Amino acid sequence: MNEFGFFLKKWVSFFVEPYGMILLLFIFWYLFLQMKKKELSKASLYLGFILMFLFSYPPFANFLIANLENMQTKYDYKQEAKYIHVLGSGHNTDSLQPLSSQVKATGLTRVVEGVIIHKHLQGSKLIFTGYKGKTNISNAQMHAKMAMELGVKKEDIIIGDSPKDTKEEALFSKNIVKNSKLILVTSASHMPRSIKLFKSVGIDVISASTDFHKRVDVNYFKVLNLEAFYKSQLAMHEYYGILWNKLRSK
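Now predict its structure.
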């Protein structure tokens, strides 16, 4: 995927996900207000507040994220495979922070799970992918550094610096694993879409979900909060991704 296509996809996705969607509705409210279109102005304002309420309401957010996270399971540490692919996440390169803080929390969880599985499987190889973004080092290299700090040998690590999204990560792995089985490590909410993409390029995938956000004990009287909104954002990002892949495949 070229740079323009990648950033265009990110830009469009922002405005159909909760943050961007609500912002867009408030922009429409202001524009319609200036144009003296009171009915459209009120409709935009009310819809914006309704969506803000829903996405910030913990039980609703939990419903959205749990539907995704329940689709795949954690790794049972019994199935064997030579390759373990830990998908990329995010990072920063602030030298004032320790490595554990430079790696995004999501990525840190994925790396730890990948290392645990690697230590259960003698002779296995860890694959890390992810491009550098606006930093001077790739996400794959940052995750590899974290893995080595946790005791993984350099010769047991394969780094893919170029993949920008999950499809490109799948294609990178296909060139390595060929027809072998692959243990895929990523966030539980991201796993359903990832499994489909990896299988679409012909990889025999074993799910190793981590970074769960769902709650089993749902409190319907919980107040609105930003954590719930964040869960909704994660979930809607994946729902749109699944829909987009279905439309593209047709």
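The chain has a mean pLDDT of 94.
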